Amino acid sequence: MWIERLDASHALAYRELMLEAYDRHPQAFTSSVRERAVMPLSWWESRLTSKLDAVFGAFEDGRLAGIVGLAFEPREKARHKATVFGMYVSAEFRQRGLGLKLMEALLSEAQQHPELKVIQLTVTAGNDAAFQLYQRCGFIQFGLEPMAVRVGEDYFDKIHMWCAPFAPSTSFNEPR
After folding, report:
1. Fewer CB atoms inside 10 Å of the end CB: C or N, the chain?
2. Checking DSSP bridges between strand 53-60 and strand 63-72, what pairing results, if any?
3. What is the mean pLDDT of each run of 10 residues along the chain (176 residues)?
4. Which H or E run includes 21?
5. Are 47 and 53 in contact (CB under 8 A)?
6. CA dist., res. 87 & res. 120, Å (int)
7. Which pLDDT score, from 0 to 100, does residue 166 have?
8. Closest residue by Cα to residue 162 from 78, 84, 101
9. How far is C-alpha 110 from the geometric centre of its chain's CA atoms?
10. How far apart (Å, rounded) are the C-alpha atoms in residues 44 and 40?
11. Which of 142, 69, 66 minimizes the C-alpha distance to 107?
């Protein structure tokens, strides 16, 4: 298993894995598979080459098995913040530590940007595995957004979490 930052050459595999994520876990994402499936490959490439995004992939057996992104805020008054997006590990590769390795890569990237003071994310209420992973990485809950996502007739709440990228709890040199 290895982690690397994705680039335009990974666009097709990235698209496939994200469409799988939207399809299998629609409550976890604000975009739908229907919305994203019609996006041209160039849209996916731009996500991987944008200076405002850093997207990491976990590879297992030569396949893209997991992904996570970090979106940097372009607005002057909010440049101290970044947002985690698109965290997903394919079901067949779960329980192998890929999620933790992806978050470690993401936080390591964040620490290369000293202007960052806040990393934020949302996680669907009830997704205990993801919530616990984020806690393990130093994120703390600061709010709950009711009815944040609607899938069919069902509504799902989102837990809002944040961490400081330079806090001791986000250092991967020490066990937590």
Report:
1. C
2. antiparallel
3. 97 98 96 96 97 97 96 96 98 94 96 95 97 97 98 97 79 43
4. helix 11-24
5. yes
6. 13
7. 82
8. 84
9. 13
10. 7
11. 69
C-alpha span between 144 and 34 (Å, rounded): 27
Half-sphere exposure of residue 137: CA atoms within 13 angstroms, side-chain side? 28
As a residue count, the chain comes to 176
Residue ranges of domains in the chain, CATH in brackets: 2-170 (3.40.630.30)
CB 167 within 8 Å of CB 103: no
**What was the pLDDT predicted at 168?**
60
* 59: Cα separation from own chain's centroid: 16
Is residue 176 helix, strand or coil?
A: coil
User: Three-state DSSP class for 34?
Assistant: helix
Q: What is the pTM of this model?
A: 0.91
Q: Where are the beta strands (DSSP E) in the chain?
A: 2-5, 53-60, 63-72, 81-89, 118-124, 140-151, 154-163
Side chain identity, residue 81? K
